[in-house]
Design a protein that fits this description.
Blueprint: H1 2-10, H2 12-36, H3 38-45, E1 50-52, E2 60-62, E3 67-68, E4 71-72, H4 77-80, H5 88-97, E5 99-103, E6 106-110, E7 116-120, E8 124-125, E9 133-134, E10 139-146, E11 149-156, E12 160-165, E13 178-179
Antiparallel strand pairs: 1-2, 2-13, 3-4, 5-6, 6-7, 8-9, 10-11, 11-12
Length: 183
């Protein structure tokens, strides 16, 4: 026991430094993971409801964008791609199989079975924690990247346009979740 006590006394600075480094590192990564999982937590808190639009693929679409505290959550693509985003194929199916109506500044996507989901104009954010929204005339949302397209968009200039394009992945866009299967 004396040998252990002597070792501790002689090496207390090294032991304390190693302990503090370990605790700090664990705390840092816990905080980082809490932030990284913020979207998942808000998704559970806001209870996402899915709508069966009667699509041939049986894809179910969330009835609204992911929110946090009652506001649409805007996130960069690197965080969004970890979630259940629609693929280009699912986005194209929504575009082609549904009837699109623009009324009172809201886009209505009416499925083959008559059920619908709505899309409010969202724009996107260029800077972190910046309240400035760019291009508020369009709805933007992340879709799974295939080739270069990673964003779906909807606008209205005399008729409803539903399309996809590529956008800088550091911008923050809203997300609309999907899941496969039937309710």
């Amino acid at each position: 026991m004396d040998k252990a006590a002597r070792y501790a006394a002689e090496n207390k600075d090294k032991i304390l430094q190693a302990l503090i480094t370990k605790v700090y590192t664990e705390g840092y990564w816990d905080g980082y993971n809490d932030h990284k999982n913020d979207v998942e937590m808000s998704r559970q808190d806001d209870k996402i409801h899915y709508v069966d639009l009667g699509l041939p693929s049986k894809t179910l679409w969330a009835d609204k964008f992911v929110e946090s505290g009652g506001l649409i959550k805007y996130i960069p693509y690197c965080d969004a791609e970890l979630l259940s985003l629609p693929t280009s194929k699912q986005w194209r199916e929504l575009q082609e199989e549904c009837r699109w109506v623009y009324k009172d500044k809201v886009f209505y996507c009416v499925g083959p079975n008559g059920r619908y989901i709505t899309f409010n104009k969202t724009g996107y954010k260029e800077l972190n924690d910046c309240s400035t929204t760019i291009s508020e005339e369009k709805v933007y949302l992340w879709i799974k990247r295939i080739n270069s397209n990673n964003v779906g968009w909807i606008d209205f200039y005399g008729k409803v346009n539903v399309n996809k394009a590529e956008l800088f992945t550091g911008y923050k866009l809203p997300i609309r979740l999907v899941k496969n299967g039937v309710l």
